[in-house]
């Protein structure tokens, strides 16, 4: 039996590849992911680049903020060696590269706008323009911890789905999401119960919890009826979803 839960590879197959690199994205497809989650930031000269941290240090060794470096400077950085020498020379990709990769697939692409700490004014319009140019409006879901940004995305592009990222403490979050047209909830994995998933489903809002890396947690969330699971190990989730019994 093949389950319909979306298998979102968190920053690509980041458990076995350097996160947010083309190697990680390609590996996710090989391992059975049906979705890819990634983080979008912007260079000093306005290119949309895929990296989680606001600082470049952790994955490239560069001390600058992402927004302080040009696209050309960022392209020279090694984003693979920190993970394993086998990935030496992996670069930080630009959004268009990932859009090109998924364009010939049915992968659901979850683009997290990293505009909570740094505002990146106008990022919403820029990301949506890139998605529309690639013709991927129906395959993209935009998420963010900045819920004002999600409301702006929905205003600009009502046809593109949005997901509310949060950690805990939202009362009836499906009602909150509906206030500004969000179609999904992206909570931390502990902020999920079967009752809440059912209530959200009745309201037409999906649950896609993060970051779920243990088999038992995956089984529990599948049983709870979530729409998708965001994981560093898409191969593990794929194995569970294709098994006859969870």
TrEMBL record:
InterPro entries: GP_PDE_dom, PLC-like_Pdiesterase_TIM-brl. Residues 5-241 form the GP-PDE domain. CDD domains: GDPD_TtGDE_like. This is Glycerophosphodiester phosphodiesterase. PROSITE patterns: GP_PDE. It holds the Pfam family GDPD. SUPFAM superfamilies: PLC-like phosphodiesterases (SSF51695).
């Amino acid at each position: 039996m093949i389950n319909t839960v979306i298998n979102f590879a968190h920053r690509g197959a980041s458990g076995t590849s350097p996160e947010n690199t083309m190697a990680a994205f390609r590996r996710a497809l090989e391992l059975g992911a049906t979705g890819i989650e990634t983080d979008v930031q912007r260079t000093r000269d306005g290119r949309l680049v895929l990296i989680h941290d606001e600082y470049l240090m952790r994955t490239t060794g560069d001390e600058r903020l992402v927004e302080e470096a040009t696209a050309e400077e960022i392209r020279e950085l090694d984003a693979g060696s920190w993970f394993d020498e086998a990935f030496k020379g992996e670069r930080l990709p630009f959004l268009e590269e990932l859009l090109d990769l998924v364009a010939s697939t049915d992968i659901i692409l979850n683009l997290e706008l990293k505009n909570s700490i740094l505002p990146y004014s106008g990022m919403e319009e820029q990301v949506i323009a890139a998605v529309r140019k690639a013709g991927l409006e129906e395959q993209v879901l935009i998420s963010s911890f900045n819920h004002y940004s999600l409301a702006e995305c929905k205003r600009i592009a009502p046809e593109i789905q949005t997901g509310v990222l949060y950690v805990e403490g939202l009362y009836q979050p499906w009602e909150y999401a509906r206030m500004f047209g969000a179609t999904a909830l992206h909570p931390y994995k502990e902020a999920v119960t079967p009752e809440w998933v059912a209530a959200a489903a009745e309201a037409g809002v999906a649950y896609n919890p993060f970051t779920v890396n243990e088999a038992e947690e995956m089984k529990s969330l599948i049983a709870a009826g979530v729409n998708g699971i965001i994981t560093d190990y898409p191969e593990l989730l794929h194995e569970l979803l294709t098994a006859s019994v969870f």
